[in-house]
Give the backbone structure.
Amino acid sequence: MSKKLLKTKLFVICDYASMDREGKLSLNGIFNEMYVNKMPAYFLRFYIGATITGEPEKNYDIQVTIFGPNNKVVNHEETTIQLGTGGISHLITDVHNFPVEQIGKYTIRLKTNDKKTIGKTSFKVIDLTTKRESVN
């Protein structure tokens, strides 16, 4: 019997995420851009939501790391998930007081403790004070 590789099926950032008693994942306000009008700035709260598949009924240690535009670690958390009998589980990370010191692209990576990347997504921080061309 071959082992199933651990991988991420869904990986988003959003305003709110929750899981009900039956294990259903709810994601509200999915976004990929954050806006600031002064620097430095802080985002009070956002959530990272992911659906992870792999070997059924196995525990995995997961690292959730957010890198800034300069590739410096801005936020890092570790957690353990257990996949269900169907080989699927949901991960919710609640990010508080997220510091923004640079405008640009931020990358979020999910890794196992053996350093294998199982998911990657990104979002942009945009400066509202910078003039941009109208799309109209």
In short: The beta strands are 7-19, 25-31, 33-36, 41-53, 59-67, 73-82, 88-100, 104-112, 117-127. The chain is about 0% helix and 65% strand. Residues 16 and 28 are 5 Å apart (CA to CA).
